[in-house]
Task: inverse folding
């Protein structure tokens, strides 16, 4: 009898492991991006620990197990499929035609695999956004507390500024020197980009936990994260963080309360004006007068290089080529601009691909946010801040930031249907777990109306039980049960 019970328990345990393995892989990738705990050296050949984890996660995602719908090809379709294919084509062309090393191309393939793994996880497990919020919070907490530790303990990081945001040598600035925190990264600008990208998603943890005291603790950690952003003394990070907060507040609390389109446009223009004024003030008080001049040299040299290299100079080679082209002996790592860097490395075809990724991802997040999707709102906030930071820098040049960037893109694009057309006659999803919350003010009788619609459309509930078939309704938000959770913070 005991042997029979152990035999029957074995398959159940293995099925449970396979069922949750894809999400576990996503957790490992996200936390590795935040803390870099995975070794970079390959296990064998070109198989690094990260690539092994991604392959295992994809296999587990398509294996049929009880209690979870097996991922099918349609579950991986997104609006970015064509731009991604174009990006891979341009990258492959410049790599093999130019005879450049293939390691950067393998890195690009790694982040693309990560993108589709996260899309598959979000599509097959609609409640996984709760776990992603908690994981983002854990990563933010690790990086931000390390940053505060560097500042409070006066740990040298090699980066210092004065009170007016002027770059100075850490050993020659006197008593007014302020240490720029790097957290778990090698550069304060990278830490700023990381926080701008993940802080909005950390707020999802507040929706995942309903207890008020625990939710308060989550808010405290998020506030610490924004405080850590201040310790970087990154001017671009300040502007990007302010933009993300502005978008988050405007889309979540203000926009639903503005009935007329003209009012929304007016407040949108005022917000942009306030952001530009803040950016001008930061640059004005800064005495680092050559900061933009250095970027100007990089941009000028990058355009000159791009003119003479229609197929690009090869992935990962922009810094070397720009350093050789720009006047002086300054060494550049990249073009200090996300899109210009892709132009230099992959030519106009790569530029077209990355611009398409930018426009499609941001517009998809904006449409979802306009329809009161919380995931769309935090995605719009994160992408707005990150794209603004990428105008004066290229944080995605670091593999860890690049992985997290594509992970955020995956969460946003998994929320949107693969096509652009909405199905107008589709009924609203029932107010049951484990779907997503809406934001904004709800009518007084909204709960009763939803319950009535749920009772009268039971047949539709069964038809929409598959998470992928509910995707065209994602713009309406996937849950009302936690709709007030984020609004009460």
Result:
């Amino acid at each position: 009898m005991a042997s029979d019970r152990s035999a029957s328990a074995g398959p159940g345990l293995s099925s449970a492991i396979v069922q949750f393995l894809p999400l576990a892989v996503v957790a490992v990738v996200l936390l590795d991006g935040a803390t870099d705990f995975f070794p970079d050296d390959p296990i064998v050949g070109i198989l690094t620990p990260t690539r092994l984890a991604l392959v295992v996660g994809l296999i587990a995602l398509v294996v049929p197990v009880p209690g979870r719908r097996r991922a099918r090809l349609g579950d991986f379709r997104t609006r970015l499929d064509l731009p991604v294919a174009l990006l891979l084509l341009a990258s492959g062309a410049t790599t093999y035609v130019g005879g450049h090393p293939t390691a950067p191309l393998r890195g690009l393939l790694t982040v693309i695999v990560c993108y589709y793994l996260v899309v598959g996880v979000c599509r097959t497990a609609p409640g996984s956004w709760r776990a992603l919020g908690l994981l983002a919070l854990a990563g933010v907490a690790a990086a931000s507390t390390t940053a505060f530790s560097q500042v409070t303990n006066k740990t040298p990081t090699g980066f210092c500024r004065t009170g007016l945001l002027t770059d100075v040598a850490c050993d020659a600035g006197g008593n007014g020197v302020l240490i720029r925190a790097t957290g778990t990264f090698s550069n304060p600008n990278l830490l700023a980009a990381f926080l701008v990208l993940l802080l909005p998603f950390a707020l999802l943890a507040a929706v995942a936990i309903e207890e008020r005291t625990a939710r308060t603790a989550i808010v405290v950690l998020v506030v610490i994260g924004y405080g850590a952003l201040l310790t970087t003394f990154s001017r671009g990070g300040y502007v990007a963080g302010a933009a993300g907060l502005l978008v988050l507040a405007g889309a979540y609390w203000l926009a639903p309360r503005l009935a007329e389109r003209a009012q929304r446009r007016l407040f949108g223009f005022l917000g942009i004006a306030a952001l530009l004024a803040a950016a001008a003030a930061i640059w004005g008080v800064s005495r680092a007068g050559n900061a933009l001049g250095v970027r100007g040299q990089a941009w000028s040299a990058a355009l000159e290089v791009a003119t003479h290299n229609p197929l690009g100079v090869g992935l990962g080679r922009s810094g070397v080529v720009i350093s050789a082209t720009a006047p002086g002996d300054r060494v550049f790592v990249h073009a200090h601009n996300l899109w210009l860097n892709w132009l230099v490395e992959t030519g106009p075809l790569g530029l077209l691909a990355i611009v398409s990724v930018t426009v499609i991802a941001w517009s998809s997040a904006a449409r979802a946010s306009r329809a009161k999707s919380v995931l769309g709102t935090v995605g719009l906030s994160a992408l707005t801040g990150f794209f603004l930071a990428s105008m004066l820098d290229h944080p995605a040049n670091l593999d860890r930031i690049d992985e997290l960037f594509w992970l955020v893109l995956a969460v946003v694009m998994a929320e949107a249907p693969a096509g652009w057309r909405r199905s107008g006659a589709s009924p609203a999803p029932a107010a049951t777990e484990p779907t997503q919350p809406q934001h904004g003010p709800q009518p007084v009788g909204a709960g009763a109306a939803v319950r009535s619609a749920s009772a009268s459309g039971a047949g539709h509930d069964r038809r929409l039980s598959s998470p992928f078939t509910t995707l065209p309704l994602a713009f309406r938000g996937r849950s009302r049960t936690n709709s007030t959770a984020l609004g009460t913070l």
Observations:
- The beta strands are 160-161, 167-168, 178-179.
- The mean pLDDT is 79.
